[in-house]
Amino acid sequence: MSTVSLQKDHDLITKVVKSMEATTSLLEEGKEVPGTILMQVIDFSTNFTDICHHSKEEDSLFPALVGAGMEAEEGPVAMMLQDHEKTREIGARMEASARVYLAGGGSKDLVADLKEYVQHMTEHLWKESNRLFPMAEARLQHMARKVDAEVHEIEDAKLRGVKKDRAHYEKLADDLAGHLGSG
């Protein structure tokens, strides 16, 4: 149905969020985290979570819900849009603090940003998976195929735009989990 692809995204995002938790623990223990790992986390957060996943929701699911009678300016859709903005803000700070860390700066800001991102995403994914998606399944039964098709088209286009595909991000999530022991 219309949220299956989005839930698969949530599962993949959760795997990377767990790797972010492991990264935070390493940094707090004073261990060095390689730049390749940090930049893969940033790449995933920016290109998969925001550019791909959030676009699927913002460009297909949310408009379909509004078309099915859900309020756009308040309620669940508005709350999720606010959460997406907060994700972008934390993600930008996280990228900046990662670059400072990789340039030889301290890890304090990076640890704080990673922790905030992990907490925010954990809460956000729970709200969508357990509240919004069941509402969407109930309201969008009559147009599930249309939403499914749109979601797949958006994913393909957005990931092509960053010259990657879903398989790349699935492998990245598995690799991070393997390197960080979070899988």
From TrEMBL:
Domain named Hemerythrin-like: residues: 6-136
Query: What's a single GO CC term here?
Result: plasma membrane
Signal peptide residues are none
Database matches in PANTHER family:
BLL2471 PROTEIN-RELATED, HEMERYTHRIN-LIKE DOMAIN-CONTAINING PROTEIN
**Identification of the protein by name:** Hemerythrin-like domain-containing protein
Q: Which organism is it from?
A: Cenarchaeum symbiosum (strain A)
